[in-house]
Amino acid sequence: MALNDLPKSGQTLNQTRQPIQDNFLGIDASFSVDHEAMTVPTASGNAGKHKKVTLTQQGSSPTVGATEAGIYTKDVSGSPELFIKTGADSEIDITSAVTGASAGECTLPSGIKLKWGSGTTGATSTGVLTFTFASLSLTDFNTIYSVQATAATTSAPGSPGNQRVARVDAYDTSGLTIRTLRIQALGGDPQDAPFTWFAIGN
After folding, report:
1. Could you read off the pLDDT of 168-184 as tens digits, one per residue?
2. Which of 13, 25, 83, 128 is most deeply packed, by most CB within 10 A?
3. Can you point out the beta strands (E) in 33-162?
4. Is 6 within a domain?
5. Is 29 part of a structural domain of the chain?
6. pLDDT at residue 131 above 90?
């Protein structure tokens, strides 16, 4: 509620008593949102503390000073998500994740980005699949720190010649090349197989 602007020149105590009381009641009601109530005894150790923090959704990124940090919410695909912005750095979406049928990505509060996905190497027994992050509706990395690939299935017991492994053949900030091999074959015979991958960067 808006507070009453008083006392004004010429007003008597009788004229301002109720508006002043309304001001205090309004302050108490507003303070009680997300806070322990003002009636909580100081001796309890909870007076003035938050019960939770509610952030109203912003239509655009707020301005943050060079020596400041801001936490706020903005809409991402119809859902309010939490963002952090420090100094002159770009904002970081720290709660939403992009997930699709075969890949996804998210950003940690530190700015570290995680990407993951799955696929199957080529249909011509080459055991190789090259793809870009953009083709999976993912963003590119600025820098990649680590990439891993794992064969998604192995053969049934008694068929060791059909077991597969997966490895990262090549990578850059915009995509990966994954190769799958049959363990049994000398030198690692290329074999098509499903795999999963995981990458860390910024």
Report:
1. 999 999 999 998 877 65
2. 83
3. 57-58, 69-76, 79-86, 92-93, 97-99, 103-107, 113-120, 128-132, 144-151
4. no
5. yes
6. yes
